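Re: duplicated header lines in exported structure tokens

Our pipeline writes sequence and tokens for each protein into one text file. With two proteins the header for the second block appears twice in some exports. Here is an export where it did not happen, for reference. First protein block:
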Amino acid sequence: MERSWKNQIWRFPVAGMKQNILITGFMGAGKSSVARALAELTGLFAVDTDDLIESLLHCSIKSYFVSHGENAFRRLEQRLANWLASSVDHTIVATGGGFFQVQGLMELGQVCFLNADFDTICRHLHVCAGDQQTVMRPLFQNLEAAKKRFDERLPLYRQNAHHIITVGTQDSMDLARQIQDILRQNGLLAQ
């Protein structure tokens, strides 16, 4: 069934707040797949901040991190957040794992934090020695360091979210339906 964002009635409570839905969470929480599922449910477009940054850079984020460092990457994320604030509305935005740190995050739209525990994230990423996902996500080459970063970020994710969605064994569509229901129950999205 084809839908249009024009058919969606938004009732965001803060004047000037963008009418986007941002999906945040630690790497491997399922942000991108949930954003795609939510787009299917609502008829809204979905974008991924990591994909947008890679399009701008013409290289992978991993390569950029190696050559320029995390601080330079965080500046790019802020630049992207500024662009979202000025140019994007009525869109679902899957964010990178550290995007929750950008200034003005909560004004970009309704922030939905996918709260997955560390074991669930490891299962999502199929983390084990020599696994391709481990190679693609260098942080997970040292599980102790990954767990430490996860523990440090967890309260910040919660603090920088309008809604918290607990991730367990649900699939992406189930999580997307939960987000849709939460937004509807709070009067933020049309029934």
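Second protein block, exported in the same file:
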Amino acid sequence: MASTTIPTVTPAVALRGVSRTYGGGSAPVRAVDGVDLEFPRGTWTAVMGPSGSGKSTLLHCAAGLERVDAGQVLIGDTDITRATDDDLAALRRTRIGFVFQSFNLIASLTAEQNVALPLRLAGVRPAAAEIREVLAAVGLGERGRHRPRELSGGQQQRVALARAMVTRPEVLFADEPTGALDSTAARTVLDLMRAMAGRGQTIVMVTHDPAAAARADATVFLRDGRVIDRLAGGDARAVAERLVALER
């Protein structure tokens, strides 16, 4: 009988033996310590852990915002470990989206202009209708001409999410995207992220909130820069119990 070859599926993001150390001398801090981790395509993964466990550093290394000291980072088949700054900037404008807890909107630009910025930086002149469509998708179709100071925190986070969505990235990295939001605004942002995952995009989200992590397909737990545990599915209570166990 002829053998059947099962094709391997390349993960959206892969970290191979990744380490990142800060400082030197007698007391260096290894924020990420030999991490091997894959994020499958079309999935939403939450990353949790105690304060100082290396969550944000891991996210920044995976997105190419920080250089690793050892190991390898791949976005699909692309090894970004030793990519040039220009190559990384191009990658972030086309294949990667990043949402910061602090929004990082430009105060002098309107919501529409903030959303259009990644495309303009990539040399693309977006159609006004396209920008309005993305803002409408996050429930801000009528707020496109408002500047950040004229928007609530939840609205600013949705503008930041729309800015990350507009390039239709393969992977969306989100660092505490609901950390500064009330429960209603947080639910709206999480609903939008679930819709993105439903369309086949990959999401990697750092969060401290078990309820937010429970919306993801899986949760990865870090401690002292290392992957300690992983929970597939699970409600907020199950996520919280795993997190409490790590802090004991």
